[in-house]
Amino acid sequence: MTYCVGLLLDQGIVLLSDTRTNAGLDNISIYRKMFTFSNDGERVIAIMTAGSLSVTQTTLARLTEATEEDDPDETRSILHAPSMLKVAQIIGATLADVTTDVSIKLSRMNQSATASLIVAGQRRGGPMRMFLIYPEGNFIEATRDTPFLQIGEHKYGKPILDRVITPETSLEDAEKAVLLSMDSTLRSNLSVGMPLDLVVIEKDSFRISRQRRIEAEDERFAQLSRAWSDALRDAYQKIESL
Amino acid sequence: MTYCVGLLLDQGIVLLSDTRTNAGLDNISIYRKMFTFSNDGERVIAIMTAGSLSVTQTTLARLTEATEEDDPDETRSILHAPSMLKVAQIIGATLADVTTDVSIKLSRMNQSATASLIVAGQRRGGPMRMFLIYPEGNFIEATRDTPFLQIGEHKYGKPILDRVITPETSLEDAEKAVLLSMDSTLRSNLSVGMPLDLVVIEKDSFRISRQRRIEAEDERFAQLSRAWSDALRDAYQKIESL
Questions:
Q1: Is the per-residue pLDDT at A8 higher than 80?
Q2: Which of A76, A139, B4, B46 is the least buried, fewest Cβ under 10 Å from its Cβ?
Q3: Residues in chain B where the model's pLDDT stays below 50
Q4: Does the interface ipTM go beyond 0.85?
């Protein structure tokens, strides 16, 4: 499995993904699930992936190919589409096509493969937007009422987000919140694993503002994790029983 | 869905269940999922249920019937079985039988129905034991390494248990922990709902030590919930960002 979370806030977009993929429990690998596309100063798009690696890799390969054509087609290149909504539609259509292709092959073995994506970004002249794209290619969008989207193993890390995230949350606090949400997931579910990829896109910057990989041995993440554990235990001790 | 959690601790057993059942989203009802059987001073057994109501009600009815026979059969009555392991075997076999009966009916409609149970208790002369019984009737047992078992919507409430529960946890702290675990689940998942049923069985008491229903309007639970939210937000604010 996977855990990816995206926040759409007044000040910008914060995205975090893990990197664990597994085919069964005895075949665990590290694959990037965070992909960025940008035309700095004009447009920035980030895509996070969950689900079958064969589907997500082929989808990303097709999307990338379309952006690199000599005469890019704005109905196929996400770097040239006229709006973020069109970007989501292109990605949704590509995902649906790939899913269909792969499923035809797999149906002979009575197997299936699906994937979900989170797509976030902004183009000059438009607002920041963030979408969750379903395997069938349809999608939903983050709003002020629901400023975060999750794919993969989303349940462990949802309570902290439900409690602390609002559209007004600062980018710094938001980074902390997604890391703590991930930390809860890492502790409780083996199928989500380090390293992590963190991306921040500040509003109206039209570029990746910060991007970093947090490795398994990252001492500051380990400190954050310990501090959160200690703080939770303290909080728990202080609460009076019923 | 449902959320039920059971802790097997050095000082005793703590069990908490919600009461929401739903057939679709437009048909929500309250049904008890916590059932106790006891022969005070000799034996106490608690069963929590998750899954299809038709399966769990029929299973409980058959188990109850077997305990009320004039000449109870120790291979069928959980109040007369010679050990907690035998109790788990009787319950597992009953659940598997009921599941098979119901599934034969439902298979004509291409539907299926399953249920899982948590069974905990102690008989005089034996240790406290707690089992998670799968729809097929097989089961696993809580141990010192893994002193809690969950059924239903278990993911939201797992991180807090992973962090604070050890076999040495006091019964008072354990009550608090299961209530906070439930609180996180209630907030993040509509299919889990108030009221709650809490049962505590102290070690070597061979009776239900405390049993209470916590209603939706319970002011002390609301306070606990608010205090935990505040404590979590405080803890979150205090943590330094990466």
A1: yes
A2: A76
A3: none
A4: no
The range of the structural domain enclosing residue B21 comes to 3-237
Of all residues in chain A, the one with the smallest CA distance to B223 is: A242
Asked if residue B242 is part of any domain, the answer here is no
Residue A15's SS3 state is strand
Q: What pLDDT score does A238 carry?
A: 87
Residues of chain B in contact with residue A239, where contact means CB-CB under 8 angstroms, are: 176, 180, 224, 227-228, 231
Total domains, chain B: 1
Provide the CATH number for the domain around residue A68: 3.60.20.10
Instruction: Supply the pLDDT for residue A26.
Output: 77
**Per residue, what are the HEC states of chain B?**
CCEEEEEEECCEEEEEECCEEECCCCCEEECCCEEEEEECCCEEEEEEEEECHHHHHHHHHHHHHHHCCCCCCCCCCCCCCCCHHHHHHHHHHHHHHHHHHHHHHHHCCCCCCCEEEEEEEEECCCCCEEEEECCCCCEEECCCCCCEEEEECCCCCHHHHHHHCCCCCCHHHHHHHHHHHHHHHHHHCCCCCCCEEEEEEECCCCCCCEEEEECCCCHHHHHHHHHHHHHHHHHHHHCCCC
Query: Is A242–B227 a contact, with Cβ atoms under 8 angstroms apart?
Result: no
Flag whether B153 is in a domain.
yes
Contact (CB, 8 A) for B4 and B157:
no
Tokens linked to A65:
């190919």
Residue A22's pLDDT band (cuts 50, 70, 90): confident
Q: What is the mean pLDDT of residues A34-39?
A: 96
Question: Nearest CA to CA, how far is A216 from chain B (Å)?
Answer: 14
Q: What percent of chain A has pLDDT over 70?
A: 100
- In chain B, residues with a C-beta closer than 8 Å to the C-beta of A179 are 242
Residues of B in Cβ contact (< 8 Å) with A215: none
